[in-house]
Specification:
Layout lengths: L1 E5 L9 H13 L5 E4 L5 H12 L2 E6 L1 H10 L8 E5 L5 H5 L6 H10 L3 E2 L2 E3 L5 E2 L2 E5 H11 L5 H14 L4 E7 L2 E13 L21 E7 L6 H9 L9 E6 L1 E6 L5 E3 L2 E3 L4 E6 L4 E2 L3
Parallel strand pairs: 1-2, 1-3, 3-4
Antiparallel strand pairs: 5-17, 6-7, 6-16, 8-10, 8-14, 9-10, 9-13, 10-11, 11-12, 13-16, 14-15
Helix pairs in contact: 1-5, 2-3, 6-7
Length: about 290
């Protein structure tokens, strides 16, 4: 049995035709899915839990946020695999997983493929992430995006990024990884299983899905005069070239801020969540390229 978890608001509700194409292709390929539709933020988590209890593959039709919710409700790992038909605004994790944005091709990838073990990130309080977890300016960007009623999607994210860089401040934090302890005054500290955020901004450009490691990136003590050049490097996916960028690969990370900070997990904001991350390998099976 295959269950579709469909977010009708994905892509700001402009993906109806793509969804119809995906569903038609599934029927052509002999897949007769049970369809569960989300009606509120957070509902995909419970729908995924129910689908996994019933058994069979669970296919998310939506964006990074819906995938994040479904992962947090996912269970019965031995008998259930996870699939994604990307229909969000950014589809950042789909890019890392080499899942086509064309709905017919995404269905064919599932129909013809074999699910592969795919890492995800485990945090305290039972929170899971699959793309990028971070704190600092990325949280400010997301807050500005959600309060901006004029510009949405990638344009809204880019404008929020520019405003946040102009008003930026560094955050004091301590990071522990690979047996080391480092102290930063950081513009952003993030850890990536995927490589990009915000619809294509490569914050963790060297991240490789399937290598069993997570990429930790911190922009440390950047001076205001260096911000324009850093912005250009970021947009080109070359932020690791900057001298103020710290980069490590690890399986476990602890970030302790001097003051309480909000953490974003796959673009979802969490207050009071300790920034402690472990990679989980050989558990989640996912259809990907």
């Amino acid at each position: 049995m295959v269950t579709l978890i469909v977010n009708p608001s994905a892509g700001r509700g402009k993906r109806k035709k793509q969804y119809e194409r995906a569903l038609a292709r599934m029927h052509e390929r002999g897949m007769e899915p049970r369809i569960l539709v989300t009606h509120a933020r957070g509902e995909a988590k419970e729908l995924a839990r129910q689908a996994c209890e019933a058994g069979g593959d669970v296919i998310v039709v939506g964006g990074d946020g819906t995938l994040h919710e479904a992962l947090n409700g996912f269970g019965n790992f031995e008998n259930c695999a996870l699939g994604l038909i990307p229909m969000g605004t950014g589809n950042d994790f789909a890019a890392a997983a080499k899942i086509p944005e064309d709905p017919v091709q995404a269905v064919d990838l599932i129909a013809d493929g074999t699910p592969q073990y795919t890492e995800y990130m485990q945090m305290p309080q039972g929170v899971r992430g699959i793309n990028v977890i971070g704190t600092g300016i990325d949280v400010e960007i997301l807050r500005r995006c959600r309060s901006n009623r004029l510009f949405r999607g990638k344009t809204g994210y880019l404008l929020s990024l520019i405003v946040s860089l102009i008003k930026f401040k560094n955050y004091e934090l301590t990071a522990r990884f690979n047996g080391k302890e480092e102290h930063y005054k950081s513009l952003i500290a993030c850890i990536g299983n995927g490589s990009r955020i915000g619809g294509g901004i490569r914050m963790c450009p060297a991240a490789v899905l399937g290598d069993g490691l997570l990429d930790f990136v911190a922009v440390d003590n950047v001076k205001k005069l260096r911000v324009p050049a850093a912005f250009v490097k970021l947009m080109k996916g070359r932020i690791l070239e900057e001298k103020f960028t710290r980069f490590e690969r690890c399986e476990h990370l602890e970030v302790e801020p001097a003051l309480p900070l909000t953490v974003q997990v796959d673009g979802e904001l969490y207050d009071g969540l300790p920034f402690v991350v472990d990679v989980v390998k050989n558990k989640l099976r996912m259809y990907r390229g």
